[in-house]
Amino acid sequence: MTTQPIVASHSNSRYVCNHRRNLLNEQFEEICRRGGIVGLNFHRHFLSENADCASVTDLLKHAEHFLSLGGENHISIGSDFDGSDVPQDLNKLHKISNLYESFLKIGYNEQLVQKILFNNAYNFFSRF
């Protein structure tokens, strides 16, 4: 219903965690096709079907899946620090460094990590 790019500011992959608020592959691919952006959500119930054990590792799984669908320029950080239930290893802003280090440990290069953590969102929102 819109011709403008779509923002899904706090969304993960339903393929990785079957939560009704997470995006289907087709939805994510359409957001990418339209030049939109998806902000990865830290809420435990959106990260893992075993929410009590959710961690930064689960967030990496969502990023990996979205990247496999062509999301290199379309994923960013949405977090959800304002009252949601986030894993202990992501529950404070300074713990974003855990996410940064985790991306590097699994082999992402510095340029891709910077895109996910900052540049993709900055580039998207600076257009409007």
Task: Write a short abstract of this structure.
Helices cover 41% and strands 9% of the residues.
Distance between the termini: 19 Å
Task: List the strand order in the largest sheet.
Answer: 1-2-3
Structural class label = mainly alpha
- Kindly report the average pLDDT value: 95
What's the shape? globular
Work out the number of β strands.
3
Provide a count of the helices: 5
Radius of gyration: 14 Å
**Percent of residues in β-strands:** 5-15%
* Biggest sheet architecture: 3 strands, parallel
The arrangement of helices and strands along the chain is EHEHHEHH
Unreliable stretches (pLDDT < 50, length at least 5) are none
Q: Can you give the helix content as a percent range?
A: 40-55%
Q: Could you explain the architecture of this structure?
A:
The protein has helices spanning 25-33, 44-47, 56-68, 96-105, 110-126; strands at 7-8, 37-41, 75-79. With 128 residues, the protein is mainly alpha-helical. It has a 3-stranded parallel beta sheet. Helix 1 (25-33) links the parallel strand 1 (7-8) and strand 2 (37-41). Helix 3 (56-68) crosses helix 4.
